[in-house]
Fold each of these.
Amino acid sequence: MSPMLPPDVVLKVDNLSVVYRTDRGDVKATANVSFELRNGEAMALIGESGSGKTTISLALIRKLPRNAVIKSGRILYQRNQKVQDVLELNSRQLREFRWNECAMVFQGAQNAFNPVLKIRRQFEDTAQSHGWTDKSAVRKRALSLLQLVRLDPERVYDAYPHELSGGMKQRTLLALGVLLSPQIVILDEPTTALDILTQRAIIDVLNDMQRQLNFSIIFISHDLSLAAEMADHVATVYAGEIVELGGVNDIFYRSLHPYTQGLLTSVPTLEHTQDMLQSIPGSPPNLITPPNGCKFHPRCGFADDVCMEDSPPLTADIGGHLAACWHKDRLIESRKTRV
Amino acid sequence: MSSSVIDLKRVYRSFKSGRDIVPVLQDINISVNRLEFLCLVGESGCGKTTTGKIICGLLPPSAGIVEFEGADIASLRGEDYRRFRRSVQIIHQDPYASLNPTQTVSEMLSYPLVRHKLAPRGRGVLQRVHELLELVDLTPVGDFVNKYPHQLSGGQRQRVSIARALTTEPSVIVADEAVSMVDVSIRIGILQMMMDLRDRLDVTIVFITHDLALAKYFAWDGRIGVMYLGRLVEIGRTQEIIRDPQHPYTRVLLSAIPEPDPEKTRSKQHIQLRSEDIPRLTELPPGCSFHPRCPWYMAEVCDQEVPELSVSFQSGSDVEVACIPLQRGTELVLHDA
């Protein structure tokens, strides 16, 4: 019997672990990651470089590099009440899953287009390779999407990639990503390396698109502000594990993990007159030989003997706000005294 | 002697690109005051890095004068020129590219000491290397002296890069996006260390960044200069600019930046541009180069005359802006689209 999911869950990742085999040993890039994505919601995976957030997203579309091994886990995907495990799809099914069901827009999207083909050809090729051969229908759909991302549709459709600016390419790519009406769009660092005003345009366009086309978004970023602006749920990723997961307000106003808390107090804002900022001491661990117990303990102000020995489980409070920390109570106490 | 260390006077810089001449900097006038924190902010292609390189003498200006302690650097010769180059150092953006992968930390830091005869050979050099590593908080020093760059994390590399800039005991350091490649959780630590250096070593720091929030944090007691397409459009005290930006471009930028606070960022008013396309440097529009995008654009004024930096008419502060309507005392009111 195929597994059951609540009707509004489109994706459920269950206990996913990925290692990369290297000459120096196994890199435990993702360990026991679980989360659910609901219909029409935007979820942010927040973490620093090397935290394993890109590995999670690549695993979702089975595009991991060759030296990666999925050690455990299930990735359940639901459409029309039919549930499938992405990890068990054969190559034909996988081909249908990608782009039709789940599209990914990679980091550095500016280089994602083939420079010698017009944008039109790249839309047509994508449609055709997924069995959609009626070019005038493709054109109609493409033009309406380009309009949606606030570009001049006719002009962009017949342009070569080099005729478009970085921000225009990024928006064209978003339109191409949703060409086949996927249920899920994965965005890897969607605004990194773009200028502030271009970033703003992308954020606004994404919000419009999601409202009109009603897909779910998973986005991966190190930018907390972007998560604050766009996400419904936020997962903090540290050393390959989800250490905290909750609604966006839970994470930003009532964080229950010292790492998330540390990230929040290390980012300057424009709002406050003078920030009391503090870095997190130390640097992220080596994932070949991660620390015992809680992987954050060497950098954590709350750490004691328990943290060094036992890894804290990801447990929920009443509101379903998950955090993996032995010292949530002390964390809440310390927040009270600070305010 | 004036209180400024570096003065750029009517500096222009252009580059040849094929048949085109690209005007990267136009008419830049900046004085860097002794011991101040000055931030240059702007988007990519605005000329902030080129300005930094010109300040360090790594690039000559195409026109205009760069003065170091009142002397035109183009006229410096011999020991005077060497003293200028020792006194003004740069920290590059990418700590993965700016350190020589075949040299240990100790070799990297010793070389300038020996080259400029800044420490007695042998023991003296070694001792100085230790002092430098302590200054940038790479302690215990013994763990780092004999490491190669690939054995260090990004943050540690950037600290080595800062230590290297300090070898020649500079009075000015240009930090070009010095923390943008460093992980978020350790950025502030490096920034705070750099800010401490001013008090400990009497260095003036020119910080170049695209991140206004970071600029605000770094230069809270200093000044911010906002650049757009090769020109300085607004410069003044950080606190005033952040609280009450004058130039339309600065206003738009500040309104566009997302904040790490869900309620605030979602209720923020964003000023809409008239056009999202950034003009190419080779095809700059006439008049104010922001006018095709400016929501407060005044026909037959902004597209005719190039605005110069001067004190704004109404703000009552000493913030300088390059905007003709503002200089004429016109109040900028947003029209509903």
Note: Chain A has twelve helices and twelve strands.
Amino acid sequence: MFESITQTRMTRWGAWLLGLLFTASVAAQSSDSLDWGDDESWGDDPWASEDQTWQWYGFVEGAWAERINNDPLIDSDQTLAESRLQLETERAFEDYTVSAKADFWADGVEDNAQADLRALHLDTTLGESIDLRAGRQVLTWGTGDLVFLNDLFPKDYTAFFSGRHDEYLKAPSDAIKLSWYGDLTVDAVWMPRANPNRFITGERLSSFSPRQGRRVAAPPKLDPLERDALIDDSEFALRLYQNINGTEWAGYAYKGYDKQPSAYDSQRDRTYFPALEVLGASVRRTGFGGIINAETAYHFGADHAGDDPNLPNSQWRFLAGYEHEPATNLTLGWQYYLQWTQEHEALIESLPDAQKPFATDEYRHVVTNRLTWQVLRQDLTLSMFTFFSPSDADYYLRPRAEYRFSDQLTGSVGGNVFGGEDDWTFYSQLENNSNLYARLRYQF
Amino acid sequence: MSFSRLLTRSLALSLAVIAQTALAETLTNAGEIVERANVAAYYAGDDGRSAARMMIVDGDNRQRRQFTLLRKDVSDGGEQRYLVVFSRPADIRGTVFRVEKKIGQGDDRWLYLPALDLVKRIAAGDKRTSFVGSHFYYEDISGRSIDLDTHELMATTDRHYQIESTPKDPDNVEFSRYQTWIDRETLLPMRTDYYRDSGEVFRRMEVTAVETIDGYPTGTEVRMSDLDSGGYTVTQFRFSEYDVGLPDDIFSERSLRNPPRDWLQRD
């Protein structure tokens, strides 16, 4: 027993150290030259010349995140201990561009080696005004800052909460995206099978289970029924967009499945991804010396009547935001978000008594604040993102300091800090996963 | 090169020659000099394309930036559209910056972050902050509105008009005044010194190379120095072209997600 714990620890430290050493050694090899180098061709632009080859890019990164509190449910004292290599390549052929991006990492928390194909897509233009992207790709739309109403593309909350770089919040989708650019922009996305979130399974992070009435973690890991039938489990997403004199209007529609396994099949005792349709709209423009935005979405939950406790109710979601620069190099952003659960009374009535206290409020209010301060001519970025819910009485803080040592080397330290009054609300359920992290990345 | 393009170019060239001949006269009105210098420096042609690279030097630390710049004027001395597509360094490769430059009101600015597929709208904010970590400010790249300062012709030498500019709203800027040496022939600002209240120069812009491209004299190497720290940034422009016929619709959301390769490609 003791031996295996020691071994696990060593693997973790090993993974982290390996990444660090590799990063440092690569960094040491590349000495910054005084001159521009002899690349008179300025060859870095992918459109520099007609003669195209495969372009390669990537980074190596060591990342470590230590839990602030001990989580009695999870052995590991870390939420992150990894050495990562990302490789990216791109090549343009006549009218087509092929891109691929893959991550490989030694994971000290799960004690294994992992790989993730983050992009593999083909881009082309059909006629004058249609762009096509087919394949694995990251997709984003909507006006929220880390708050998503109409963006029903998959997120990786496990990565986001555990201390990885922000870019990992977005998980890739296997999709075909057609964009038509006329007076109006129409984006139509078809995902031949459902692309759910990379949700919290309990392996790395613990969360609250209303059915069990307590916080839980693996084993057993959360293992919902999959939505992996090609065509049958298709998802569609649509956006109409128009910029009228600097005011950006957009309408959205989605027909697919909930990104979270929010439904429960009591016969099979398994969670699953229920059907979900969403309609929404947003507007964004300059105003009050900054940027203002508003967005709304109606989520047609699987349970219209609201009286089935095993299915999610419908919800209205609203967002209003304002971002400005109150002082030089200081950006301040505010958002107010409302999640209004429909047929709330029916939901409460239908729940078993033991689960009633854990039900979401009819009106869940969230206020967010983003503070970004750039100093040392943008080499150092200090930022703080705060989620605070007055109705749930809980919070989620994301402080971060990021420093650019050079064009290649970037270091970050930061945290993911959760807390609140009750064990079961949205952010406070994650309290034992609170962590402080450090990352060092070398780009090439 | 197509015939019509050749024709446009030779026409532009002869117009430029005529313009230069006309400029042999000595200007005496500070307002007119500043207006024409602004057009010469920031509004050459109806549109333009250029590759640019920056070397940012702070002691031993050197950083590079490389990008392609597309510009289209709505009117000379007035509104402009910019698209800036970054290719270097690795962490900002694929980032695209779009600006609708306005006069007398805040610009509209968008930023595309490829890793997240995110089109971010940015508050116009202070234009006298670093452009992508360099010693240049946003305002140095896209031009400071000439209405923000009062201008006075201090001296006229063989080669330069020497203009002193004083901000109308000194609370909004970090300098108390600045002096610009404007080439009498090309009307390009060749050097600008920024002064503190104490009378000390703390920041300097120098054009260190000029080439005539498509008939337009163009500063192809510009140096911005922080005289306090000794740090500086050198920007070089290459493969510049004017009057390339950039269509309006490339200055749009489409180009953020999918940069217009045909228009970015060098001839």
Note: The radius of gyration of chain A is 23 Å.
